[in-house]
Design goal:
The complex is a heterodimer. By secondary structure, chain A is an alpha/beta fold. Chain A has helices spanning about 40-45, 70-75, 95-100, 105-115, 120-125, 135-150, 165-180, 195-200, 215-220, 225-230, and strands at about 1-10, 15-25, 30-35, 55-60, 65, 80, 155-160, 185-190, 200-205, 210-215. Chain B is mainly alpha-helical. The chains are: A alpha/beta, B mainly alpha.
Chain lengths: ~230, ~290
């Protein structure tokens, strides 16, 4: 479904991603782990069209998306829940959701908002509250529900556990697992290696912008580099 | 005397409010002050004047001026500001001042520097309210301003596109993740703000005349009102515009017309010192 081929991305003169290749098959749950500054967010930003790679190619469902703009990629079935959630703080929870469905026909938006909030009852309870006043965990759930409004084929998640208490991290991962079980393909990056590996069926390890390893969940868990650097 | 000055103030304030809306809407999406906004005000008035010279029906000439203002704002954004999206804000500011000077000179080249009076179907008529006579054009300005404010309020708060404009003002990158073309939202914002600014120019044309530098002071007052109201706050800009007009009018009537601008500026300075976020501006609390 998603194929990243020899992609290199730079911030000015600094190489943030160096010749990275990876792929995500349909219905898969794939994680990318790595330390802070390893290039995980850069990878997702490059895939979603927020950053332009200097070289390499990215294909979505067999078609190159290297020059596609972010908003067009959403219509093509891929979206990102960014690091830090980025909800619209002064708009209500419900307006945030409706904006998530901006590309849907007007008559379908309310119905879809009801559907995506089914696993998140707290969002229904707080539908008229300003999104900026939700707790961090609630904002994360809103960001995920909002991304689901367009029924994406591929959902990218950037650091879903960042800034959340351990209890909330489990809750958020439970919801993500539920979405995956319902058929959404997921590519997730997280510093929380343990949760990210447990969630995925396959994963990649990024170190200083380069791929340092890859494999199935069990292979990753047993990998020396992962054991030493992330699972201790 | 008091009522006279109050009505003059509301009329003047309506114009400032319309101008302030343009500044504040553009600030919302791009976080910069479009100092060429005064030239949209001037451009709209000149196009209406030109259409009237061609014997266009007056309502069509007014509408043409508003559309020309919207187009001018749209083109400014597309041709200059969009290409400077990643440039430092100071560059944008200088570009805006440059556009402003170029447009003033262009207007002078095309239409000349002599002030001209725009026709109004109401200017020669008065309405008697008690002992007072109120010019019908003044009533026209107030009614139209109220209508514009209602339409804008409905657009911003009741339509999804209006909410997309609000979303863009809060987080433009996240807006794109909703599948929204952020550049289109910025263009729409520019066009709406500019149309409203052009309408202000057309409305004052029959009273204060039309000339190439007419937007300079009106722009400054609109900018002042938008800061007073809390930059980025549309209802705040509207109310602060009205307030500024009334204050100026009272200063002119009860102190001296020579000090009206100084009084308005002293109040602005006071507000900035006491409430830097503006009268209606909020310091946003956000849980992280």
């Amino acid at each position: 479904m998603l194929k990243v081929e020899n992609v290199s991305t730079f911030y000015g003169q600094i190489c943030a991603l160096d010749n990275v290749s990876m792929m995500v098959e349909e219905k898969e749950a794939v994680s990318v782990i790595g330390a802070n500054g390893a290039g995980k967010s850069t990878l997702l930003k490059t895939i979603i069209g927020d950053l332009r790679p200097k070289s390499g190619n990215i294909q979505l469902s067999g078609k190159s998306i290297i020059k596609e703009k972010t908003f067009k990629l959403v219509s093509r079935g891929m979206t990102l829940v960014p690091e830090g959630r980025h909800v619209f703080p002064l708009l209500s929870v419900w307006d945030n959701l409706l904006l998530g469905g901006y590309t849907l026909p007007a008559k379908d938006r309310q119905q879809r908002a009801e559907e995506v909030t089914e696993p998140f009852p707290i969002l229904r309870e707080r539908r008229d509250q300003q999104a900026g006043l939700l707790s961090g965990g609630e904002q994360q759930m809103l960001a995920i529900a909002r991304a689901m409004m367009t029924k994406p084929k591929l959902l990218l998640l950037d650091e879903p556990s960042m800034g959340l208490s351990p209890k909330l991290v489990f809750e958020v991962y439970d919801k993500i697992t539920e979405l995956h079980q319902q058929g959404t393909t997921i590519l997730l990056v997280d510093q929380n290696a343990e949760m990210a590996i447990d969630f995925c069926s396959r994963g990649y390890v990024l170190m200083a912008g380069r791929l340092a390893g890859q494999g199935t969940k069990n292979a990753l868990k047993e990998s020396e580099i992962v054991q030493r650097s992330y699972l201790g | 005397m008091f009522i006279d000055q109050l009505i003059n103030g509301i009329v003047l304030g309506s114009i400032y409010a319309l101008m302030a809306i343009g500044y504040t809407m553009v600030w919302n999406v791009l976080r910069f002050i479009n100092f060429a906004h005064g030239e949209v005000y001037m451009g709209g008035a000149f196009v209406s004047l030109y259409l009237l010279l061609l014997d266009t029906p007056i309502w069509l000439a007014y509408l043409g001026g508003v559309c020309a203002g919207a187009l001018l704002g749209y083109l400014m954004e597309k041709m200059v500001y969009m290409r400077m999206r990643n440039a430092p804000k100071l560059n944008l500011l200088i570009a805006a001042i440059g556009i402003s000077i170029v447009l003033q000179n262009l207007a002078q080249y095309i239409w000349g520097a002599t002030p001209e009076r725009l026709t109004s179907p109401f200017l020669s008529k008065n309405i008697a309210v008690g002992d007072m006579l109120i010019n019908q054009h003044y009533i026209f300005i107030i009614i139209l301003t109220i209508l514009v404010m209602i339409v804008l309020e409905l657009f911003i708060n009741r339509t999804l596109m209006g909410k997309a404009v609000q979303a863009a003002s809060q987080n433009i990158k996240a807006t794109q993740l909703m599948g929204i073309n952020a550049n289109k939202i910025i263009s729409i914002t520019f066009a709406i703000g500019s149309a409203v600014g052009a309408l202000a120019g057309i409305l004052v044309g029959p009273v204060f005349l039309v000339y190439p530098t007419m937007g300079v002071f009106a722009g400054l007052k609109g900018f002042t009102a938008s800061v007073m109201g809390g930059m980025g706050n549309i209802p705040g800009a509207m109310i602060a515009g009205l307030l500024l007009g009334v204050i100026e009018s009272f200063a002119a009537g009860f102190i001296s017309s020579g000090y009206r601008d100084a009084v308005a500026m002293v109040i602005l300075l006071f507000i900035l010192l006491v409430r830097p976020q503006g009268i209606f501006g909020k310091i946003v609390q956000q849980k992280v």
